[in-house]
Amino acid sequence: MTEKKVLFTIFGATGDLAQRKLYPSLFRLYRTGHLATSFAVIGTARRPWTDEKYRAIVEETIAYLNPSEQEAADFSSHFYYQAHDVTDTEHYDALKDLATKLDTKYQLEGNLLFYLAMSPSFFGTIVEHLKSQGMLDSNGYHRVIIEKPFGSDYQSAKKLNQEITNVFAENEIYRIDHYLGKEMIQNISAIRFANNIFESMWNNRYIDNIQITIAENLGVEDRGGYYDKSGALKDMVQNHILQILSLLAMEPPVAFSEKEIRTEKIKALESVRVYSPSEVKDNFVRGQYNAGHLAEEKYLAYQDEPGVADGSTTETFVAGKFAIDNFRWSGVPFYVRTGKRLTERGTRINIVFKQVPVNLFKAEVGTTCEQPCLDPNILTIYIQPTEGFSLSLNGKEVGPAFNMLPIQLAYRNSSEVIENTPEAYEKLLLDALNGDGTNFTHWKEVAQSWRIVDVIRQTWDEDTAELPSYAAGTMGPQAAFDLLEKDGFQWIWQPDAWYRERNLL
Ligand code: BG6
């Protein structure tokens, strides 16, 4: 394996993301040899840390990976700290001097990777200064990784994109959606395009509906301040959910390459119907959690979480139905839901297939089962925490009668495999080092996702009706169940049912 020669400059180096995700991911890349001797990291933020302090923090963040003392020290010796005010031009000069010094010391060949992991309001200022202060004059490549949120609506995203593209070309910009680095999200393409039984049926002739659930059992934790301004729609639907939807809905690319996959994802997103306000009311519901409990565990109401404004009307739950207006998907609802403080943590995709055209196994006349009593075939893709997939089929129950029985063919990654699965950020960092933007979002995807989401947001902002609520620990407000019921469907994954049956909810 050839090691990568690169200087990382991390803006927001003292922050939560850097500590929880970036340093451990860099360390894993170090362990696997992708980073070895020729790399350096400049961490910048406002706090006046020294290199020693910075290195000690970096070592703390990787402690759970059990490095030896020597290994941790060798790794952290590549880290340098530069206190920095992103609006002050002179600070960029200091940054440039340090970058030049490190380039010589570690022989980095002028390769620069900038990571913007701080308040998006500074992204534009930072990239502008990188250019004006000559930080991008080196000979190697110049790439920038940008954390979400990329804007807060279409207009602000467009402005931000303009600022960034004034400095970096589209193929130098890596907009992060960490879901795209997840093992089982990447597996969607494998399942679809390596199995003829699925791809040949992947359309409105055979599929009844598709369900995407990203459920979290955590509340807003210490992110109340950010979340209260964002809400579930912008925090999860605009990015992660629409990205998953585009991977499920896209046409097969002509090659498994960045360019071809992106082209198809963009087309898929452009086929998602942008609703009118009245369609939003029919097809999207939201909710906010009240106090609740799950078995012995008691939860606060969202309104009582730290950082949340009094009387906040921010939604902590969204469920909705997307329509895709193209030949493949016309008439197939894509139901999505996501929320905080739900019953269980889990991201799952359910592909629900249509029933057989004639049910030969109808129950005898006079019983309640007049309709086809068969369960639908369902392909479930488990994204997390379980990783794997299952297919439910109907078979005959053993015995003299001809009774149907749903049977599950299931494959789950073992806990050992899951343990060794590269973290999403590790994969994405490596992709960016390799110059591969496949698992990052192109501007056109971001733009279209905002267009889809903006009308939902605007409709809700103008809606004076009271915000529906749900008890913490449940799977969202009743309206989220009604949404499918009125179409004759139901959510396939109902982790709350188990608790309700036992009176624990
Ligand atoms: C982030 C959201 O993008 O994704 C968080 O801002 C959310 O609110 C998180 O908790 C979920 O990510 P994961 O990887 O834990 O499913």
UniProtKB/TrEMBL annotation:
Q: In which pathway does it act?
A: Carbohydrate degradation; pentose phosphate pathway; D-ribulose 5-phosphate from D-glucose 6-phosphate (oxidative stage): step 1/3
> Which residues of this UniProt protein bind substrate?
H178, K182, E216, D235, K340
Q: What is its EC number?
A: 1.1.1.49
Which keywords belong to this entry?
Carbohydrate metabolism, Glucose metabolism, NADP, Oxidoreductase
Residues at the active site: H240 (proton acceptor)
Which leading EC class covers this enzyme? oxidoreductase
Record carries keyword Lipoprotein: no
Domain Glucose-6-phosphate dehydrogenase NAD-binding: residue ranges: 10-187
Q: Does the keyword Transport apply?
A: no
Where do the annotations place NADP(+) binding?
Answer: R46, D85, V86, K148
- This protein's source sits in the domain of life called Bacteria
Pfam families the record matches: G6PD_C, G6PD_N
- State any single GO MF term: glucose-6-phosphate dehydrogenase activity
**Catalyzed reactions:** D-glucose 6-phosphate + NADP(+) = 6-phospho-D-glucono-1,5-lactone + NADPH + H(+)
| Domain Glucose-6-phosphate dehydrogenase C-terminal stretches | 190-491
Function, as annotated, reads: Catalyzes the oxidation of glucose 6-phosphate to 6-phosphogluconolactone.
Family the entry assigns: Belongs to the glucose-6-phosphate dehydrogenase family.
Which PANTHER family is this protein grouped with? GLUCOSE-6-PHOSPHATE 1-DEHYDROGENASE, GLUCOSE-6-PHOSPHATE 1-DEHYDROGENASE G6PD
Q: Which HAMAP family match?
A: G6PD (MF_00966)
| Name of the protein in its database record | Glucose-6-phosphate 1-dehydrogenase
- Provide the species name: Enterococcus lemanii
